Amino acid sequence: MTNADFEKLVDTSDEWIVSRTGIRERRIAADDMTSADMAMEAARRAMDMAGCTHEDIDLIISGTVTPDYRLPSNSCVMQEKMGFPNAVAFDVVAACAGFINGMSIADSYISSGAHRRALVIGTEKLSYFTNYKDRNTCVLFGDGAGAVVLEPCDSGSGVLSTFMKSNGSMRSWLWSKVGGSRNPYMADFAFDGSDKIQMAGSEIFKVAVKEMSNAAATVIKDAGISSDDVSLFVPHQANIRIVEAMAKRLHLGMDRVFLNIHKYGNTSSASVPLALDEANREGRIKPGDYVVMVAFGGGLIWGSALVKW
Ligand SMILES: CC(C)(COP(=O)(O)OP(=O)(O)OC[C@H]1O[C@@H](n2cnc3c(N)ncnc32)[C@H](O)[C@@H]1OP(=O)(O)O)[C@@H](O)C(=O)NCCC(=O)NCCS
């Protein structure tokens, strides 16, 4: 969907959307394509790239707030459809930080020796969760999925440090009020958008800049390197102005920050793996490079990971 498409739906303009967010287009999944379907496609490509089979995977973690079902998890749906005979599969509900939190969990499990090879996914069908009558939110979101395979290595590369933090006191700044056990759907539900994404955008903006900067700085410090050593920053793609403000706080030139928000909008937990994959395929990441991933989302929750490629 392009910005021109949104001009026909709500009172907005291409100029406003581009200047306030950096978004020009987003991808919308077909009606019959679910978040698990997209996750399976991403998983297949990640396993091809890693050269591993379904039998090799013993841990599946999907970050998603738009699963196919309330029960079971998307990861178990994938396990049923693709067949991972040796894996335990579960989801993490950490909104836009879901992929990074999944990576952090997988890193801990692999480091402890409990698991050998993890498939970590970020997948979202946010289009089903978006109120296309609300101009404050509808122009921001898109659908997508990305995945990585993690396994132990001895070469000094891999995940060097991760960081996760949340603050539930701001939970209503980005939420969906109706549809859970607190406010279940009733027969007289008004379809007023209260079961879709509702957001206090400008409040979130400020916290996102501060906490994404702090999270990036934390993993750099924990890994014992400096931000000058980092070749590429791969931030959550929510708003180009959030990313630019974060880069300014970290004294980074935008040439070391990967951006693809103009093509996809905010795809929540899929955002970081989509960006990481594009950066890799475009040759922006070379063996030995330090790469920092950082994300922030509804909860509020945020996290970061530093990887030596
Ligand atoms: C949502 C966001 C783009 C809004 O940008 P902003 O510069 O903060 O804009 P404001 O909220 O101050 O709104 C400014 C005006 O633009 C209007 N506006 C909002 N959406 C609009 C749209 N799509 N088109 C035109 N005008 C719009 C508002 O109604 C407001 O009008 P008013 O001043 O008459 O009340 C920005 O706050 C943002 O990206 N926040 C973080 C969102 C986010 O990251 N969420 C997910 C966390 S992962």
Strand content: 15-25%
Bound molecules: coenzyme A
- The CATH C-level class name of the largest domain: Alpha Beta
SSE sequence, one letter per element: HHHEHEHEHEEEEHEHHHEE
**Which spans have pLDDT < 50 for at least 5 consecutive residues?**
none
Residues in helices, as a percent range: 25-40%
- Domain tally: 2
**If strands are numbered along the chain, what order do they take across the biggest sheet?**
2-1-3-4
Number of helices: 10
How many E strands? 10
What is the CATH topology of the largest domain?
A: Peroxisomal Thiolase, Chain A, domain 1
What class would the helix/strand composition place it in?
A: alpha/beta
Spell out the blueprint of helices and strands:
Layout: H1 3-7, H2 14-21, H3 35-50, E1 59-63, H4 74-83, E2 88-92, H5 98-112, E3 118-125, H6 135-138, E4 143-150, E5 158-166, E6 174-175, E7 198-199, H7 201-222, E8 230-235, H8 240-249, H9 261-264, H10 271-281, E9 290-297, E10 301-308
Parallel strand pairs: 1-2, 1-3, 8-9
Antiparallel strand pairs: 3-4, 5-10, 6-7, 9-10
Helix pairs in contact: 3-4, 7-8
Output the keywords.
309 residues; alpha/beta; Peroxisomal Thiolase, Chain A, domain 1; 4-stranded mixed sheet; 10 strands; globular; binds coenzyme A
